[in-house]
Design brief:
single chain; mainly alpha
């Protein structure tokens, strides 16, 4: 018979993989920037937006999606965030213009902004006090791993074309969505949906 510790052990890799996927897409695009610039005929100044728009929309998404997870539950918002990230990845890979690529990166960033805080909140909800610190440390380690592996993985995948750097997210996202739907806490948290709308817009 499986106990709570077994469920936590199966849940942690799902959270880890989602956070790793979101973190990798900051670092993995570095080696691809010259190829993207060449494909769309844009200069280095414009290419900086490939990073900046991802980070900007990640910051916006973290506030909104984390709050929505308090109301509609961790499972729903974690899965939705990963699905948004995957949709953005597909849009980037299929883009035929640089503005379309940036829109895809914005959708990616918005989804990534929900993945990280919802995963962290899930650890707080599910893991016992004795295991919580270790689990949070494990998730925190993801960013260090991502910034080491990202340029290496990006350089390898770039040999097959820059769109593959984004298409590779799709099977990973599918695995995370499947695992998240089965293992994350279900139902609503019951909080009222209240937003500081002027603050959000600002």
């Amino acid at each position: 018979m499986r106990g709570p510790a077994d469920g936590q052990a199966r849940l942690l890799p799902v959270l880890f993989l989602g956070v790793l996927m979101a973190a990798l897409d900051v670092a993995i695009v570095g080696p691809a920037l010259p190829a993207i610039g060449s494909a769309f005929g844009v200069d280095a100044r414009a290419l900086a937006w490939v990073f900046s728009i991802y980070v900007l929309f990640g910051l916006i998404g973290s506030t909104l999606l984390a709050r929505l997870s308090d109301v509609y539950g961790r499972r729903t918002l974690y899965v939705a965030s990963v699905a948004l990230f995957a949709a953005g990845s597909l849009a980037v890979a299929l883009s035929r213009s640089f503005p379309a690529l940036l829109v895809g990166r914005a959708v990616q960033g918005f989804g990534a902004g929900g993945i990280v805080p919802v995963a962290t909140a899930t650890v707080g909800d599910v893991f016992s006090l004795e295991r919580r610190g270790r689990a949070l440390g494990f998730l925190g380690m993801v960013f260090g791993v991502a910034f080491i592996l990202g340029p290496i993985l990006g350089g390898v995948l770039l040999r097959f074309g820059w769109p593959l750097l984004f298409l590779v997210n799709l099977p990973v996202a599918a695995a995370v969505i499947g695992g998240g739907w089965r293992l994350l806490p279900r139902g609503r948290a019951g909080a009222r949906l209240e937003f500081d709308l002027p603050g959000v817009l600002l």
